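Reading a protein record of the kind used here takes little practice once its layout is understood. An example of such a record is reproduced below.
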Amino acid sequence: MTESIHIKEIVIEPLTRANFADFGDVIETESAKHFPINDGRVERYHDLASVQLGGENSRALINIFECNVANQFPYQLPLVERHPIGSQAFIPLTPIKFVVVVGKAGDHPQPEDLRAFESNGYQGINYHQGVWHMPLVADETGLRFLVVDRGGDGDNCDEEGYPDDQRIMIVRQPNQVNQSV
């Protein structure tokens, strides 16, 4: 008996505030509220993301993540994860485009409910509490992110894989090429 494998392709879309709103915040200065501080020497881009720190004894963690394995697209998505108690923000420290895959908070997302987005190289993202997303992957090694995460009591990371007969492929549109900006 031959086993049937179902393949779902998810085409990567540009990352914008509007198309990412169901999953979290886009962290960027473009069209953001801002005002001068420090006697006009500095422009403050204000309140770019909502950091969620649910649960007892919680605190914000500031980390740096560095990708040490390069991945190629199309990329087969093995699993998704979520942070049920708090949000998680990724702000690139290296000006290079990166891809995220997301599914709405709730039950484990089906392949047809997932969406993929690519930043413009200067945007960061903040996954809202409970939003399913792919683990961090990068096209090149050395990509670094400042990560604002939740620390404290409780387990704030759930991971769930997809069955062997489901292949979820993240693909670029034919004219999409990742490059440093």
User: Anything to note?
Assistant: The chain has a mean pLDDT of 91. The chain has one domain: 6-171. The domain at 6-171 is CATH 2.60.120.480 (Jelly Rolls). The helical segments are 17-20.
